[in-house]
């Protein structure tokens, strides 16, 4: 029995890619040195696919979705408002094409997206502070821990892959309404926490290459995505109200501080060098564990457009937000009391 353990570090635009490869079995003696091995596995899986642009897009999509979940609106709430809604976002930045097109590895996600429900509560500061100036201020907070699987999420449908995860986003927005003006100015802080787990297995042996030689492997794939981002947002909105209907356009700016990380693991049986269909004569297995992260020290701007319909103390609102490479939509139901 031959045991070979390779560990290496590659670099992605200033962020470290860690790659570990473990081989067990007699066929391991025919595997080239660590640089060729890492070149065959680490570079195609993460360097060419999960680029910094893709990781940044994944994180910023989650941030925009979190901000849109706040449902602060553009109208001054005179007392209290309770809301529940659902928010989705989608990015334009995509991961690059996969080298292993005939492998189940191609099922890994290639485009940033985020979605979750949220509950919000808005209060007029005049309810707490006896001041005419305080009545011009609203504070809105939202929070909703959400665990999901493939059956209850609309944005991750990956063939032959088990999907699960959790989202725990929250934030608070202060909004100021100048007297006798349709304008409002908001600022607030947000925390975006996301975890996504994907697992798949090969339904049949698939091809890969080692030092130019064709091999076949059969195994399982796991991916763990994690996002932890703190954000500060500032926006300005203008509200038009026509009876029971309102329109609220606006613009905003967000600064982000945190990270987005991805870890990919693959464990597979490998065929012999002499026969790509032979897995039995020299039983051997290979394990690959790759990890990279993108550190967010970024900002982005966005535009927003909200619509609202009011029926007594009940509001039905929707708000669309769009940045340069992402869009988000929220639908919420609110009750004023």
From TrEMBL:
<dbReference type="InterPro" id="IPR058232">
    <property type="entry name" value="Lsa36-like"/>
</dbReference>
<dbReference type="InterPro" id="IPR036709">
    <property type="entry name" value="Autotransporte_beta_dom_sf"/>
</dbReference>
<protein>
    <submittedName>
        <fullName>Uncharacterized protein</fullName>
    </submittedName>
</protein>
